[in-house]
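note to self: the first set is below, dont mix up w the second
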Amino acid sequence: MSKDALTKWLPAVISAAVLSVFAVIGSTLVGLSYEGTSDRIAQNERDALLRQMASVLPEHQYDNDLLNDHTEIHAPKALGRYATTVYRARKNGQDVAAIFSPVTTPGYAGDIVLLVGIHSNGKVAGVRVITHKETPGLGDKIEVKRSPWITGFAGKSLDNPAPERWKVKRDGGHFDQFTGATITPRAIVAAVKRTLDYFQLNQEKIFARASTAPSKTSEND
């Protein structure tokens, strides 16, 4: 290569080399940053999930690791989603409660994701709303920070009230509705009732140990 050609191309070569070095350094820093934060992010997600579950089932009521004691259920008709992870709470080896995350289909403005805890005796441990798109000032009263309405499910079962009373009062049922917003509470009452029905019919499979039963429960079982 001639001296003139070398002079012409040398700056470009140097620039490309410098950019390559910076790219390698940048990729390395990103990789190191991810390695340093991924575990923390995963732990934060686990802690957030445990806090959500504690809102429907206090931690003192069980002594097992909920995040490592769960089963996957395929029951879209009952739970509103194709696959639902159900966490099993146990104490001293005894079944205490199951925590579901059913989805209402639909609420007034879309799906509502719930957290429903059910004691092994069939009574509701608690219900909370995880996500929703309901109208502020009306449907958002399903949030515990907006209204105590959602706490009224605690202690309820398929016998209290009777199955035919698992409706809002406007439909001849037991549960209050909101002024100007009936669709939202109606959807949640129905979702909790379906979850209770599913639990009653599948309790043995839900609490089955991995060594004695399949890890998945299906609506067709």
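second set (the one i keep forgetting abt)
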Amino acid sequence: MFLRKATPEDANAVLALWKTAEASESVTDSENEVRRISTRENVAFILAVIDGRIVGSIIAAFDGWRANMYRLATHPACRRQGVARALVKDAEKAIAEWGAKRVTALVDKDHAWAVHFWEAVGYARDEKWSRHVRNL
């Protein structure tokens, strides 16, 4: 396995991974949006690749104040093999290099496997805050 930065050409393969990994759907799940985010500054869109196939993804972003990680996804056939841990570690490294002091992982609370993973790698659930969203 090796990790690399996503490119615009990876968009369809990434969307297929997210679907296979049962990632929660989002209004940004389109080829154009995935291509766009892969070229942004202060965004680490990292892919895990095995035998030329994308088997994992994570998006880490820092706006100078807040750091967030999104879209951690691992192909079901590659779970429990260190793929997600490697992606998180690489994303944390990028965020730290940008100067972030804290990072938030956005996790679908209905995906128990995801909640357990994040807790296992040292992320605590923040009961103080709730997230409010609005699609534009």
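remember for set 2: The two ends are 37 Å apart (CA to CA).
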